[in-house]
Write a structure and sequence with these properties.
- It contains 14 helices and three strands.
- It has helices at 24-53, 58-78, 84-87, 89-99, 127-146, 153-174, 177-194, 199-223, 226-229, 234-243, 254-266, 291-324, 328-352, 370-388, and strands spanning 108-111, 114-120, 123-125.
- The longest helix has 34 residues, at 291-324.
- The protein is globular, with a radius of gyration of 22 Å.
């Protein structure tokens, strides 16, 4: 969906005094997802919030504050020429690296056994979310500067070094493997779009699948020996719980089983909004990583498919903007944001349905999490600005 207006903003990448494009479909889809997410956060968290904080709207209020602040940031960013971020690519990358170790300082704090957050001037911030956004900007800039050199094997490895460093730091320092996977996934997708040679990506995919299969095989072998079983870390136990959740129902498999119970009990049209049973203390993190399971329980298969279709619409609108962007930098920015959304949605739903081992990944715009929704909205603001640079006559 497009509208005509006269832009007064010039500069590289922006149309000057010409009819330009604005994607209202993208904007309204995002706003609807945020509104729907607030409704589901209240539905899934009111019971626990009332018990823990004596306020059934505790999580709703915090998320609403973050969402409103994020919307303001999105609107502001949507008017900033996207080439402005090219100048901040290196500082943003350096800052994101500098923020990660702060979780180990007095600024950092733990939640649910994980030390992944820092508190600055009263605001809570997850450095991994900053890293995702900075990686999109930095890598888009680096690809443009390298030009045809990215087609060589050396160029490919040079491009993978920056996201590799950030991913390792996020994984080792904050113990956040899911965010590390998302950062690497964003990088691979952006390089894949910019590179004409797809063979290396096919080889990489085969290596990753083969490596994952080997890891699972080794863990299963270790589990067959009581002595080796004791050496398994919690991630190894999660894989075992994924393969046989009933055997670990009292430990690592508990959340997975409860999520599957919620999904299965929802049926076609669900039990009704607010009628979930699993959110009453049975399903851990019901308002966060497992909110898709509550959607399935309360709104059924119909609600789940509707949410998936909304995300597909969101990704499709990003594809439209990326395909019509005036230059490579703008296109790569949108591809990075699109990859971030797509990877996170796929992984979250895969975890909730036990397609992959359990790991902490939120559902974009819907799950509880202030840092996540704020930085996602900033990313959407960048996409909208790239869209503003598209001239209607070029569509």
């Amino acid at each position: 969906m497009a509208t005509r207006f006269k832009t007064v903003q010039g500069g590289r990448g922006q149309s000057n005094s010409q009819d330009t494009y604005f994607d209202y479909s993208l904007l309204f889809t995002v706003l609807f997802l945020i509104g729907f997410g607030l409704m589901m956060i209240y539905s899934s968290s009111s019971y626990r919030a009332n018990l823990d904080y004596n306020d059934s709207a505790y999580f709703l209020k915090k998320q609403l504050t973050a969402a409103l602040l994020g919307i303001v940031c999105m609107v502001v960013v949507s008017y900033i020429p996207y080439h402005f971020w090219e100048k901040l690519a290196v500082p943003a990358y350096v800052i994101s690296i500098g923020l990660i170790p702060l979780v180990l300082t007095p600024l950092g704090y733990s939640s649910h056994g994980a030390r992944r957050w820092i508190r600055i001037v009263g605001f809570s911030l997850q450095p991994a979310e900053v890293a995702k956004l900075s990686m999109v900007i930095f890598l888009a800039c680096l690809v443009c500067k390298m030009g045809k050199r990215i087609r060589t094997m050396k160029g490919f490895f040079v491009l993978m070094i920056p996201p590799g460093i950030v991913a390792v730091m996020v994984w080792k320092i904050t113990q956040n493997m899911s965010s590390a996977i998302i950062i690497l996934g964003i990088a691979v997708l952006m390089i894949f779009v910019a590179s004409p040679d797809y063979k290396r990506f096919i080889i990489m995919a085969l290596v990753v699948v083969g490596g994952a299969a080997l890891v699972v095989f080794v863990i299963v072998k270790m589990a067959s020996s009581p002595e080796m079983m004791e050496k398994l870390e919690f991630r190894g136990l999660r894989i075992l719980a994924w393969l046989n959740p009933e055997a670990y129902a009292d430990d690592k498999g508990f959340q997975t089983l409860q999520a599957l119970y919620a999904i299965g009990s929802g049926g076609i049209f669900g039990k009704g909004l607010g009628e979930s049973v699993q959110k009453l203390g049975f399903l851990p993190e019901a308002q966060n990583d497992m909110i898709f399971s509550i959607i399935c329980e309360e709104l059924g298969l119909f609600g789940a498919v509707a949410v998936i279709l909304l995300f597909l619409l969101l990704i499709w609108r990003c594809m439209i903007i990326a395909n019509n962007a005036p230059d490579l930098f703008g296109a790569l920015l949108v591809v990075g944001v699109m990859g971030h959304l797509a990877i996170q949605v796929i992984l979250n739903i895969a975890v909730c349905t036990s397609v992959i081992p359990n790991t902490g990944i939120s559902l974009p715009f819907i799950s509880y999490g202030g840092s996540s929704v704020m930085f996602l909205l900033i990313e959407i603001g960048i996409v909208l600005n790239v869209g503003r640079s598209i001239r209607l006559k070029d569509l």
